Amino acid sequence: MKKEIRIVGIDDMPFSFKEKHTDIVGAVMRGGKYLESILKTTIEVDGKDATDKITGMIEGSRHRGQIKIIMINGIALGGFNIVDCEKIFLATHIPVITIARKKPNPKKIEEALKKHFDDWKERIELINKGETEEIKLKYPVYIKYFGIERNSAIDAIKLSIIRGAIPEPIRVAHLIATGIKKGESRGRC
Amino acid sequence: MKKEIRIVGIDDMPFSFKEKHTDIVGAVMRGGKYLESILKTTIEVDGKDATDKITGMIEGSRHRGQIKIIMINGIALGGFNIVDCEKIFLATHIPVITIARKKPNPKKIEEALKKHFDDWKERIELINKGETEEIKLKYPVYIKYFGIERNSAIDAIKLSIIRGAIPEPIRVAHLIATGIKKGESRGRC
User: How many CB pairs below 8 A link A and B?
Assistant: First the structure.
């Protein structure tokens, strides 16, 4: 895999439950090193539009032809706005990798969804697409991948980590998302 | 000068003249390589608060003790909200360098200020603090510097340029400022 492969990392801005919408940020980088572009779009908190909004953000970008991998900080943005990574891959033909620092707890998520959403079955079905796999690098991360082979997904993660556990495109998107919303970036991805 | 010296680069978000305020973004980097933090604050379009807002943004940051140089994209942000770099240096004890890709045209600026502002004399006085100097690197840039010697200012600029004419902390702040406001980053610094 080329060291300068273009990856877009995506994370959401922090939000309060009073807010109906939140912004998501995409950081387009060459490997883990050079920032090429920043993308932004708006999704509904606990909505169902994250998949289409991410697809539109990438399809509408001037960098669309260069982006070879999409990395997302987890499987849900803006609360429980669950991302259908398979659908994004089928629409864009760009592989999608989700990365989480914490081990997902499907039972807890299921309980929360049942409690708060009439369409909880549909959301659980989306969450259950793909297998979650623990990858043991310097720090463990939990990933899913769509449209890419396991070895290539791991290669892409390895080459885009500079420090710590999280690939630079997601780390940078997280710094921007929290910094712009809060005045100073904070917290782990 | 240490290669990993912490520099904050500052640029403003684009705005229309209908808007009374605009945001400014600070990108804290180690040299030109590693993004450490994002800062944001809000200033008045054509106002007079940029100096105090930048000072507050930096003094209030968790990275305050690490930041060794402030770089600003030009001498004015948010239209004609002119930055008093000397005052920022005296308040923070952090050297300030302004960098512009285009040669400033003092006569044109003076005409515009006279036309639009009752306090044009005061604003011109601020603009005229420090000498503008052309630095011939791979591409020429026009700089002013406050609280730092000429050679050290040039060293800091050189070590923080990766590609092109503009130090990474300012380039990254520009990408974020335009990307967040417009949905996709655009334009040169």
Answer: 73
Closest CA to B181 of B11, B14, B12: B14
Task: Give the residues across from B97 on adjacent strands.
Answer: B71, B145
Q: What are phi and psi of A165, to 5 degrees?
A: -105, -15
Sheet order of strands, B21-30 included: B34-44, B21-30, B6-12, B67-73, B96-100, B140-146, B133-136
ipTM exceeding the 0.85 mark: yes
As a whole number of angstroms, the distance between CA B175 and CA A8 comes to 14
For B142, the 3-state DSSP assignment is strand
Residue among A25, A35, A179 whose CB faces B39 most closely: A179
Q: Which residues, at least 6 apart from A127, have a Cβ–Cβ distance to it below 8 Å?
A: A75, A76, A82, A106, A109
Mutate to test the interface with A, among B185, B186, B188 (most CBs of A within 10 A): B185
User: What is the rounded distance in angstroms from the CA atom of residue A61 to the CA atom of residue A66?
Assistant: 10
Q: Mind listing the pLDDT tens digit for each residue in A96-132?
A: 999 999 998 989 999 999 999 999 999 999 999 999 9
Note the helical H segments in A39-78.
50-59
pLDDT 10s digits, B36-88: 999 999 999 999 999 999 999 999 999 999 999 999 999 999 999 999 999 99
Structure tokens at A185: 């970036």
Distances (CA, A) of B188 to A151, B45, B69, B103, B106: 38, 20, 22, 15, 21
pTM over 0.90: yes
